[in-house]
């Protein structure tokens, strides 16, 4: 899409650093330079305000990535694009087919109503692929300790984004993206597969709630 739109050498394309490297790599393949902007803490998608702050004379496009069933603020990004004459492209999971999606949404609603000790996702998230919570604490060690304790109680879980792209050797940038870095430190994906039994759902709630209050934010 970037090459078809005439994006290439000398251009900059704004992308999120929270997520996999696919989008940033596509920018490089088009001959352009990926520029990272911060995310909205509720959706994990690009923040229009953060995008606006990193636009330069070389910026040609913005790639909005939908994440964890949350929709990027495409309208807000398009307003930024119109102001600066930028192309706004979308990449994500919202329109992808997903078997058992209604069941996953029902399970997500169940977990949202019963989990304590973690910050649950927004009610309007589709949860088509991952049910991502935040573990409040002092950063990555707390989230990782929580994950180990939950796994020890028989609940599979994983860290959805271990390292933001701007902190990886390939895409290293000497910049600060506080919401991106906080999300990478705090997020944890819990199972929400349609194949889960009611007992397994209850085990997730029991395992997480047993740790509630143990990992508190530092003041």
From TrEMBL:
Lineage top rank: taxon: Bacteria
Matches recorded under InterPro entries: DegT/StrS_aminotransferase, PyrdxlP-dep_Trfase, PyrdxlP-dep_Trfase_major, PyrdxlP-dep_Trfase_small
UniProt keyword annotation of Transferase present: yes
Keywords: Aminotransferase, Pyridoxal phosphate, Transferase
Entry annotated with the keyword Transcription regulation: no
Required cofactor(s): pyridoxal 5'-phosphate
Record-stated family: Belongs to the DegT/DnrJ/EryC1 family. L-glutamine:2-deoxy-scyllo-inosose/scyllo-inosose aminotransferase subfamily.
Protein name, as recorded: DegT/DnrJ/EryC1/StrS aminotransferase
């Amino acid at each position: 899409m970037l090459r078809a739109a005439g994006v290439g050498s000398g251009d900059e394309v704004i992308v999120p650093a929270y997520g996999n490297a696919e989008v940033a790599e596509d920018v490089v393949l088009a001959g352009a330079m990926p520029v990272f902007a911060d995310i909205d803490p509720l959706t994990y998608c690009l923040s229009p305000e953060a995008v606006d702050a990193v636009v330069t004379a070389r910026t040609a496009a913005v790639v909005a990535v939908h994440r964890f069933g949350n929709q990027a603020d495409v309208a807000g990004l398009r307003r930024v694009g119109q102001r600066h004459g930028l192309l706004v492209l979308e990449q994500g999971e919202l329109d992808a087919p997903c078997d058992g999606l209604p069941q996953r949404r029902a399970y997500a609603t169940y977990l949202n109503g019963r989990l304590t000790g973690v910050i649950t996702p927004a009610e309007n998230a589709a949860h088509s692929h991952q049910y991502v919570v935040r573990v409040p604490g002092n950063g990555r060690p707390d989230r990782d300790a929580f994950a180990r304790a939950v796994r020890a109680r028989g609940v599979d879980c994983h860290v959805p984004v271990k390292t933001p792209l701007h902190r990886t050797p390939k895409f290293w940038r000497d910049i600060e993206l506080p919401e991106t870095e906080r999300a990478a430190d705090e997020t944890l994906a819990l199972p929400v597969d349609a194949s889960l039994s009611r007992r397994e759902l209850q085990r997730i709630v029991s395992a997480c709630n047993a740790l509630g209050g143990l990992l508190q934010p530092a003041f």
